[in-house]
Amino acid sequence: MQTQLLIGGQWRDGAEGERIVVLDPATGEEITTVAAGTPADATAAVEAADRAQSSWAATAPRERAEILRRCWETLIAHTDELADLITREHGKPTADAKGEIAYAAEFFRWNSEETVRIHGSLSTAPGGANRIIVRHPPVGVVVMVTPWNFPAAMITRKVAPALGAGNAVVIKPPKETPLTALRIAELLHEAGVPDGVVNVVPTSDSGNWFDAATEHRATRMVSFTGSTEVGRVLLRRCADRVLKVAMELGGNAPFIVFDDADLDAAVEGAIVAKMRHSAETCTAANRFFVEAGVSDAFTEKLAAAMGELKVGNGFDADVSCGPMINAAAIDSIGSLVTAAVDAGASVAVGGNMVDGPGYFYEPTVLRGVDPTAPITREEIFGPVAPVIPFADHDAMLAHANDTEMGLAAYVYTQDLAKGMRTAEALESGMVGLNRGAMSDPAAPFGGMKQSGLGREGASEGIYEFCETQYIAASW
Ligand code: SIN
Predict the structure, then answer these.
(1) CA nearest ligand 1 atom 8, residue
(2) Which of 95, 148, 171, 462 could join 176 in a cystine, given CB atoms 3.0 to 4.6 angstroms apart?
(3) Same-domain check for residues 258 and 223
């Protein structure tokens, strides 16, 4: 297994020879160590990307598309091995880890198809004097900062379109889950990605690493997935060089159940929306608004379903909720639950940390939560479902939108017109209507308000990594 930095096609140690310890969150034990990149290594990686950039950009779209397609095939062929790495360093159950590899690989297949369809346009200027030619060249070297919750998919969702558009990239994977990132980079090279086009530099000195990477004159864009808090800091730093940015930030998704919903389907969707990937997703349902007439029945059914979920080591059969990423995560979840109970909510199921080793929290349902309680303002990032009964539709919608976040939302009703009206009224980049999952490489993933800037996936995703050039031409 590669545990060094990948710079310009060479595997090597960091400039200062330091290592990052990678921990298994299910046991708290060390798995291995990886090389820690320094700011000098970040600079070296940008330089390697810069050297590779122009020849990669000059390849025919079809050639890039075929390499991307081989990346898809190669990742799929290594599903078991990659899923094993994900479960080891992130902790999510094997079934979720395998699902993540299918999802991650699909970004290559989808973008291999988009690579040959980066369209420009030709029109006649309204005055008739010239033609307006619009084309979309690659943006240039892209610095990518990725999160630990999807160790594979949050890398491929950026790398596949960036490469398809003709860019070279430098990735800073999270220090919690660098092993999957390094192995994916190795496999991309096996699939034909040229040296220097993908560089991976884990670090334990994120701030200085980022400054070095973004201060380099060759860097043209930053693509980040993570919290809104960190996103704001990175945006400020990008402003100094007026870098193009794509930001996938935090969420606070409302999950709305009207009294005409199919309650069993709503509970099934709620489990997916809350619990996929051990509840550590930014699209996770964070606040359950349930119409008063069905609130008790929904809460009871949801509590029964959550209570049946087996918590444990992701490698164990039947486990559907793995460990949280670290001790700070379970402390934060525990504090939010305690504050909600202190403010009048009651626990329908769960509500406790599970004894270690490892960082586990019981799947939890809280009933009677006040719509303004702290747990409704924070991204829980853990297996807790606060249920807020509502009677007035307009007041519920006002509460649902009363957040600076606008990433995902969910609506359950059998009245399609009501569902569509509600979806359109939600200030959210993505809405699941009678669905608990909406992530799809063919759909534009991204948020409104402080949940982000730009979209990943769909046709939009590849244009994020392009410039727009207009040529006024006369002939
Ligand atoms: C995320 O949590 O950042 C991504 C979730 C997804 O792609 O479904």
Answers:
(1) 439
(2) 148
(3) no
